[in-house]
UniProtKB/TrEMBL annotation:
Domain (NADP-dependent oxidoreductase): residue spans on this chain: 36-149
UniProt record similarity statement: Belongs to the aldo/keto reductase family.
Coiled coil: none
Keyword field: NADP, Oxidoreductase
Natural source organism: Mandrillus leucophaeus
InterPro entries listed in its UniProt record: AKR, Aldo/ket_reductase_CS, NAD(P)_OxRdtase_dom_sf, NADP_OxRdtase_dom
Molecular function GO terms recorded: oxidoreductase activity
Protein name (database record): NADP-dependent oxidoreductase domain-containing protein
Record's subunit section: Monomer.
Highest rank taxon of the organism: Eukaryota
């Protein structure tokens, strides 16, 4: 079921449409994937705390996009933007916990209840990412990381700013 048909009155017509397109009379199982997940840019510089609180109140899982900041690709990111993983506060916490700044940023999200999908093709980073489950940040650490929030977006998509559906004009 497409996520645009989750309203109860739309489920049956959507099922019937799918059956017709598949040239079937019935299916053994029709999955409605709920609760939903919402994937947004989310990292210590843009912690999305207000959106996260809203999502939790509606049983929506927040998935962090760009949880480590960004690779700073020239097409998408201003090259003068701050490098999250070089932030002195993040680096100090990494030193304190004997972990990398990336692991601190990932652990921060997990402890907030945010899903992070750390994509890597580098075997060493993949092995390191698994270590995110081997330590905890203190409540003081979490507060320090919360205070890094600048409401700063790496992925702004300036070319779409005048579009009526441009998402970054909304409250969340």
């Amino acid at each position: 079921l497409w996520c645009t048909f989750f309203r109860p009155q739309l489920v049956q017509p959507a099922l019937e449409s799918s059956l017709k397109k598949l040239q079937l009379d019935y299916v053994d199982l029709y999955l409605i994937h709920f609760p939903m997940a919402l994937k947004v840019e989310c990292h210590p510089y843009l912690n999305q705390s207000k959106l996260l609180d809203f999502c939790k109140s509606k049983d929506i899982v927040l998935v962090a996009h760009s949880a480590l900041g960004t690779q700073r690709h020239k097409l998408w990111v201003d090259q003068n933007s701050p490098a999250l993983l070089e932030d002195p506060v993040l680096c100090a916490l990494a030193k304190k916990h004997k972990r990398s700044p990336a692991l601190i940023a990932l652990r921060y999200q997990l402890q907030r209840g945010v899903v992070v999908l750390a994509k890597s093709y580098n075997e060493q980073r993949i092995r390191e990412n698994v270590q995110v489950f081997e330590f905890q940040l203190t409540s003081e650490d979490m507060k320090v990381l919360d205070d890094l929030n600048r409401n700063f977006r790496y992925v702004v998509m300036d070319i779409l700013v005048d579009h009526p559906d441009y998402p970054f004009s909304d409250e969340y």
